[in-house]
Amino acid sequence: MSIGQVLDQQALARGDANRLFAVGRYQVIPSTMNAAVISLGLDRNAAFTDAVQDRIFSDYLITRKRPSIRNYITGAEGATLRSAQLAQLALSQEWASIANPSTGKSYYDAPGGANHAWITAEETANALNKMRDQYRKAIAEGKTPDQAWAQINAQPAQTVAPDPASGDPMADGMLVQGEQGEAVKAMQEKLGALGYLGADGKPLVADGDFGRNTRAAVEQFQRDRGLEVDGKAGKHTLEALGAAQKAADQAPRRPRGRRSYARRARRRRP
User: Fold this and answer.
1) Exposed (0-12), middle (13-18) or buried (19+): which is 164, by Cβ within 10 Å?
2) 191: closest CA among 173, 208, 174?
3) Which among 5, 27, 171, 252 is least buried, having the fewest CB atoms inside 10 angstroms?
4) Containing domain of residue 213, as a range?
5) Which pTM was predicted?
6) Helices marked H in 96-211 — which ranges?
7) Can you tell me whether residue 171 is helix, strand or coil?
């Protein structure tokens, strides 16, 4: 597949069966792919090879888009705790499966919600330090900074990037119709627990598939909360959903018998 074909399929409408989202060994999302092609001057007709993907990772993703990662590896800002934390944070912002060092959860998880990160902050710290040590060794051997950088990225640089697993639907921090996975299922469970129904008027089924019923439930939740009604579960919608579930869990439950008695009493009044 050529770079241009990848771009064209990533640009298809959400829900299109032929649409690509996170692609390649570094799970590059559409906006990042487009920016990388422009920034690096990549030829649309060139094949989307492993070498091209490695270049996107080392020369764009962790250099131009997330410079704090390269700065830490090369020691540009010194070996400080702050520079290490910034590098880890940048990784968590790029890949939802990598834990935010401040919270231990995915950067895109709503407060009080489930943790969708499966790569810990400790693991990313170890990976960053490994690349940093390799860079220092190359410099000590007489390599120039550019040569040292090229050397540590000569092999797949997946030491600090997640394996291309299932195409994490939370990679861009938003859940939309057509996506599937545990993040979708967790959202459906919250909506269902709050009593939201699908487009068919039935209780929402938590099957991990973001279809028309889930979209209808998301839209109704957004209306109820005064949010933009677009049927997409982005940062604000997921935060509001997490807060609503937490409030519902903490709310005192009125005994069902007393409520029924009160209703019967009201009906008996003249």
Assistant:
1) middle
2) 208
3) 252
4) 182-250
5) 0.58
6) 121-140, 145-152, 182-193
7) coil
Q: How many folded domains does the chain comprise?
A: 2
pLDDT in the model for residue 78: 66
Distant-in-sequence, close-in-space partners of 262: CB < 8 Å, separation ≥ 6:
none
Q: At residue 252, does pLDDT exceed 70?
A: no
Clarify whether residues 130 and 206 are in a common domain: no
Locate 137 and state its tokens.
């060794």
Residue 158: pLDDT over 60: no
- The answer to whether residues 125 and 88 touch, using CB atoms and an 8 Å cutoff, is yes
Beta bridge partners of 209: 180
211-239 pLDDT, tens digit per residue, is: 899 999 999 999 998 888 989 888 889 88
147 and 193 share one domain:
no
State the residue for tokens 């299922």. 185
